[in-house]
Amino acid sequence: MRPCVILAGGDMPPAALPEGAFVIAADSGYAHAQRLGIVPDVLLGDFDSYTDPLPDGIPIVRHPVEKDDTDTALAVQYGRALGYTDFWIYGVFGGERADHSVANLFLLRWMAEEGLHGTLVHGGTTMQVLRPGTIVLPQYRGTLSLFSVTDVCRGLTLRGTKYETDGIVLKSGLTLGAGNEITAPEATITFTEGLLLVVQVRL
What is the spatial distance between Cα 27 and Cα 145, in angstroms, rounded to a whole number? Predict the structure, then answer.
């Protein structure tokens, strides 16, 4: 199934969007869509940030301003109800609402717990929260950082990186996993327990 792209209202440095995606513009994320020449499949939100007239011809899903979830979280739930499981979310950091930036990181964890695959994109930076297993990453110029978003991540083994590990326990709140690099044509990350935040910064 094609991916679901969500355009949120934070800062949005240049980045390539997946081709053929189903696009949801969440509130002022519609301003990003207009700037990029993208016609979203759906406009969603309480529209307290985007106050210009909304267009005709695009489905609009309105929510009250007083609600339990952010517009971005509601967009994920909307896409999930349509059957999407792979989400690419842009406009997730910066802007005037630092609390929304924090909320987006926690949203990423919730998505992993629900079996969804989420990627936050901020220019050359991508963030994912992964469940136990193995992931292979191709080499790129930049840094690779790993953080436990549960109490611990167990059995963490890295191969093809500047700093390799053998089945270590990565504890939440520690910065041990920050600032690594991929030194081989590809790197392999394996772990057996917990949820792992993977941050790739491409320079």
Answer: 31
